[in-house]
Design a protein that fits this description.
Elements (H helix, E strand, L loop, with lengths): L2 H9 L2 H21 L19 H10 L1 H12 L8 E3 L10 E3 L2 E2 L1 H13 L3 E6 L6 E5 H17 L7 E5 L4 H13 L2 E4 L6 H11 L3 E5 L2 E3 L2 E3 L1 H9 L7 E5 L11 E3 H6 L10 E2 L3 E7 L7 E6 L1 H14 L7 E4 L6 H13 L3 E5 L10 H9 L3 E4 L1 H9 L3 H4 L8 E4 L6 H11 L5 E4 L36 E4 L11 E7 L9 E2 L3 H8 L7 E9 L5 E6 L3 E4 L2 E4 H9 L4 E11 L3 E10 L7 H15 L8 E5 L12 H8 L16 H14 L4
Helix pairs in contact: 1-2, 3-4, 5-6, 5-7, 6-7, 8-9, 11-12, 14-16
InterPro entries: Ac_CoA_lig, ACAS_N, AMP-bd_C, AMP-bd_C_sf, AMP-binding_CS, AMP-dep_synth/lig_dom, ANL_N_sf
GO molecular function: acetate-CoA ligase activity; AMP binding; ATP binding
Keywords: ATP-binding, Ligase, Nucleotide-binding
Amino acid sequence: MAWSVHCKSMLGRGLAGLRRVNDLKVAACSFLMQHRTLSTKFPEFQSNPQLQTHDQIYKFSLENPDQFWSTLARSRLQWSTDFDTIKDCDINEGRIRWFLGGQLNASVNCVDRHLETHGDSTALIWEKDEPGTEEHVTYRQLSQMVNRIANMLKNHGVRKGDRVAIYLPTSPVAIACMLACARIGAVHSVVFAGFSAEALAGRILDAEAQTVITADEGVRGGRKIPLKKVVDEAVSQCSCVKRVFVYRRTGEGNLGKNDFSLDDEMAKESDICEPEVMESEELLFMLYTSGSTGKPKGIAHSTAGYLLYALMTQKHVFDYKVGERFGCVADIGWITGHTYVVYGPLLNGATTVLFESTPIYPDAGRYWEMTERLKLEHMYLAPTALRMLLKEGDDFVIKYNRSSLRKLGCVGEPLNHEAFEWYRDVVGGGRCDVIDTWWQTETGGICITPRPSEDGAPILPAMPMRPFYGIAPALVDQNGKEVEGNDVKGALCIKSVWPGMARTIYGDHPRFLNTYYNPYPGYYFSGDGARRTKDGYYQITGRMDDVLNVSGHRLGTAEIEDVLDDQEEVAESAVVGFHHEIKGEGIYAFVVLKGESDMNLDELATELRGMVKTRISSFAQPDKILFTPGLPKTRSGKIMRRILRKVAADKPDELGDTSTLFDPSIVEAIVTKHEMVYGKKA
């Protein structure tokens, strides 16, 4: 019986009929709610009636991971040789291998396969530092750049498996260099072009890179950044480096004896370069991230698995549609830039924005002016930027037309309620999904996110909510036992394996196992804590190890302490994080001096900050430095950092058990000094 006829029949039966109509309406609504369409559909599964809802597909991805991922790998990647083994994984041993026997090339998948269908469409929009200045690069032009650089590298002796260090600002030539490495089978190691010469040298040496690619200068926020000068200082410490290619960004500076002009060398080369055939598990890139021991970790990602996961997450988390412009404003020196500026969008044939500037140059309207001018459908940025822009007021936002926006993403650190609501209501005008994502350098791509889901499913503030396909989160207690049920907390682990997982720490696989797999056998350990709400959604509570998250940048406390301890007046130091309204987490350094120092403490604090800036980066400088008579230590000599965290958080009444301290009076002295220098919060 048709719905309208059935309703008339019920209406003809009086009050009882009306109640029946209402009951049927409720039932119909319930049915529709349970059978809503997916936020982003799967063409591969449309003919299967058992795989039509988000819950069905998510469950299928966990229960049948081989079928799920192999179907997508064959459908969405271009292979020169099909794989014969879907996976060889043992999470207990930290062994992750996917699509064995398969062969492909990343640059072919990102560029070549799009040339026939939309080679003349825009691949890259370079939003240069100069306000209102943009450059468009088509897929065909990008292909020519990639091939020329690939030939240049080969003709200078770079071979398959060699590591190439890239120290460039976010720009078309930087993306072309990454893809050129992939084309010839070299492993790119992009280093954020804001790290110091010492930090850069450490990464070059660890990677044993013989080739460095940089620019004469970077330009950011109206200021010139002497990149070549930093590289020269770094390379002077690296006997492994044989050649440095220098891209002309400003035209300043001269070349040394082992330097080559990237522009001139490219011009000599053909724009045709046969791609290297790569095995699925051969390395695509390595990217350094901070560790709790002080030595940065070269996180290594393989080719096929990473490509598939980057493609899938960019498509399904953001519901990317062909022809849209994707505005991820991350730097390519971080994993967000790798996955959601470069690989994810290009694999999907998208137009991706390369943002060279800062959110506040020339003013706090920079993102939104760019959104209006470029007609962006997607914005993906860090909570730090949001909190900073929120304080500048709404006027910088509402003066620009943002009607093109569909999805608003966030990445790097937990997004607080106020910033979430401002992003949704002011920036998005209440129209756009706010997608607060959780993932890591080690995971390759987004792991927990409000989308994908059923179309129109609720999005709650301050939490990433739902696991992505193939991701099975687990909360584990301090005894290594999984915590079941809802409204519980624990260490955030993942008990499934997925293609995008990192394969190792370059040159140190034991450290890889000890960091991610040995703490909780049978699980991947993220280092973060999380809560599962009463409704079963996931909320990130922060780091559980000695790693800070400052403006979305991961910093090991040991890295900073090593620098501070090198000052001749300093006996020892301890660094902890504290809540920072703009950066999410600030850096608080407790410093103990050697006996009585004649040095002015303000001058010493300035010197210490300068040392950190020089040896690590400006964003690693401590926000607060407190000179103390000692540090709270156990009788075995271990620093009790939880006490320092409570002091930094202005919670001296919540220090907990201090019975194991060697000298409890030190804590009282630290609390008194903290309140005297920084004041007690009301």
